Amino acid sequence: MKSIHLTLICHARTEAQRVGRFALDDDPLRDPPSPPIELATTPRCLCAPELRARETAEGLAATIDEGLRDCDLGTWKGLPLKQLGARELQAWLADPQATPHGGESIAALCQRVAHWMDSALGEGEWIAVSHPLVIRAAMLHALAAPFEAFHRIDVPPLARVCFSHYGQWRLQLG
After folding, report:
1. Domain range spanning residue 100?
2. Three-state DSSP state, 142
3. What string of H, E and C letters represents the secondary structure of 52-89?
4. CB 62 within 8 A of CB 9
5. CATH value at residue 163
6. Does the predicted TM-score (pTM) go above 0.90?
7. Would you give the DSSP letter of residue 151?
8. For the chain, how many structural domains are there in total?
9. pLDDT digit string (tens) for 37-75?
C-alpha cells in the first residue's frame, strides 16, 4: 500500500471574495501571500490552472493540474451573489445535483475531486494550491460525508488542510 501525504492550500484572497461575487478564471489576487508560501520540506507541488491559484503558488515550482480546477459555475461566473435569484441560489444550496447556472453540480465536483485524489497522486508528500470549493469536496471525500454537508464547510484564503492516505483517506488536524 502506498502512503500519501497531501496538503491542500486555498488560494489567497481575491477581489471577488471581498465584494461577494463568483470568480472569473483570470481574476488576480487582491492580497498576494507575503511572504510567499514557505514549506518546511520539499514535496511535489501542484496547482489549479486559474490565475489566482497560480499566483498563490508562485515560488513553489508547481505543476498545473486540471484536476484541481475550480467548480464550473457556468453563467454565474463573475456575478455578485446579490444578483442571483433567491430561488436559483436556494436550489443550488439545497440540491447537490442542481445546476441552475448551467455548469458543474456540487455532486459532479465532489466526484471529480474524489477521482483525482484516488488516482492522480503517487506515493510521497504533495502540496496543492486550489480553491475553497475543491477543498470542501476533498474534505467530504476523506470523511465519506454526504454531498449535502458541502455548504457547511468554510475554507478561508490560505487555509491549509492536510490529508493522509494509507488504505483510505484521513483528514489530519494539526
Report:
1. 4-172
2. helix
3. HHHHHCCCCCCEECHHHCCCCCHHHCCCEHHHCCHHHH
4. no
5. 3.40.50.1240
6. yes
7. G
8. 1
9. 666 666 799 999 999 999 999 988 899 999 999 999 999
